[in-house]
Amino acid sequence: MTDPIADLMNRIRNANSNRQRSTVVPYSTLKKEILRVLKEQGFILDYLPEMQGSHGVLRVNLKYGSEGEKVIRHLQRVSRPGRRVYRGVKGLPDVLNGTGTAVLSTPKGVLSVAEARKLNVGGEVLCEVW
Asked: Which residue, among 107, 65, 77, 62, has the nearest Cα to 89 in the 3D structure?
């Protein structure tokens, strides 16, 4: 697999479109940090590291509204292995006028746009979600 972050997003997107309660993705620390940001921003319910056989996985519990509407309407990979996208603190994206968020990999760790602005750091824009 050449892009494990795109695989994470595809699994979440597919489970969300099928209205599944949860999905399973292979474990990595970067994926865990991306899921932490999505949970803090209120886009997923929770994520749990588990063991399946000899491999670690992350179980992602998806979030839906009170009438079953999707919380994640759009999930897009921005920086890819073939085209890295970096932004300074002044160039950070304002996703859907603040309704959505972007996940960044910064020197201070994986952060949302709001956290990166507070800490005055830029970095690689991994994905956008709203």
From this structure: 107
Mean pLDDT of all residues in the chain?
95
**How far is C-alpha 16 from the geometric centre of its chain's CA atoms?**
13
Would you state the structure tokens that stand for residue 105, as one six-digit string?
Answer: 């990999």
Query: What Cα–Cα distance (Å) separates residue 109 from each residue in 47, 97, 105, 126?
Result: 18, 24, 6, 12
Q: How many CB atoms lie within 10 A of CB 38?
A: 24
Strand blocks (E) in the chain = 22-26, 44-52, 55-62, 75-77, 86-87, 101-106, 109-112, 123-129
For residue 43, the 8-state DSSP code is S
pLDDT of the residue at 98:
79
- Predicted TM-score of the model (pTM): 0.94
At the topology level of CATH, where does 4-129 sit? Answer: Ribosomal Protein S8; Chain: A, domain 1 (3.30.1370)
Asked whether the beta carbons of 106 and 122 are under 8 A apart, the reply is: yes
Residue 1 has pLDDT above 80, yes or no: no
The whole-angstrom separation of Cα 68 and Cα 49 is 26
